[in-house]
Amino acid sequence: MRLFLLPLVSVALLGACSNGESTARYLIDPPIGGERVANRLGTAELMDVSLPEYAASDEVAWQTGDGAVRSNTGQLWADNPQRAFTQTLARAISDISGATVIAEPWPLAEPPRRRLQVRVEKALAQADGIYRLSGRYFVADDAAGGANQARSFDISVPLAGDGDPAEIARAQSQAIAWLARQIAALAGPGRVITTTAPPVPRIDDLFSQPLPPLEGS
Predict the structure, then answer these.
(1) Contact 104, 48 (CB under 8 A)
(2) Is 144 left (phi over 0), alpha (psi -120 to 50) or beta?
(3) Which of 110, 114, 130, 162 is the Cys-Cys partner for 44 at CB 3.0 to 4.6 Å?
(4) Nearest CA to 158 among 128, 201, 114?
């Protein structure tokens, strides 16, 4: 009898694990609106945002009082965190400034004027009740005389209530909206580095040029 019950127990456990209603998934969805800023980026390709390992995981992470970063397999992000962060940030910068910021790969025939990189050092709901988003961003302008930006950001959003995953998702969305505004305005501590030489032609640019006419033609 005991051997007969084992398969039944296994099936019951598998059924519980596969129950979609027991898994909560949370979206990154920055609020729309607010004062617009000037278009200072023009066209820019946003490279995949670099996230800490815990923030790139499918599970929503938070910090407990002992300093540990914890998560729960039943509380997940609704999309790949890196993809969602990158796509959402590109859209938010575009919406707030009118710039054409598109996540890589660049889909248009006309190449972008600038390249944008964001390297996140911390993206965490801290034990002190604050969601912290900090790191650096870089704007590269290859044109001779172009202004290259190397700047940092450190954004804090208070967590309401117990800081449950839904509140963490809300705070992260708000932090991304603030980061989008900072990048759109090219604001934050850092420096500007001027491009002093024209860019080296890419090999595909060389082969796209028309061939010279043949002698005697």
Answers:
(1) yes
(2) beta
(3) 114
(4) 128
DSSP assignment letter at 200: P
198, amino acid identity: P
Using CA atoms, how far residue 193 sits from 33, 107, 112, 181, in Å, is 32, 28, 19, 21
Please say whether the beta carbons of 43 and 110 come within 8 A: yes
Question: Is 183 inside any structural domain?
Answer: yes
Which residues constitute the domain of residue 131? Answer: 39-198
Report if residue 86 sits inside a domain.
Answer: yes
* Token digits of residue 168: 């963490």
The answer to whether residue 205 sits within a structural domain is no
Q: Are 82 and 48 in contact (CB under 8 A)?
A: yes
Respond yes or no on whether the N-terminal peptide bond of residue 105 is cis (omega within 30° of 0). yes
Q: CA 72, CA 23: separation in Å to the nearest integer? A: 10
pLDDT tens digit sequence for 45-75: 999 999 999 999 999 999 999 999 999 999 9
Residue with tokens 């030489």: 197
**Beta strand 59-63 with 69-77: parallel, antiparallel or unpaired?**
antiparallel
Report the CATH number that the domain containing residue 174 is assigned in CATH: 3.40.50.10610
Which pTM was predicted? Answer: 0.81
d(CA 44, CA 111): 9
The total of other beta-carbon atoms located within 10 Å of residue 172's CB is 27
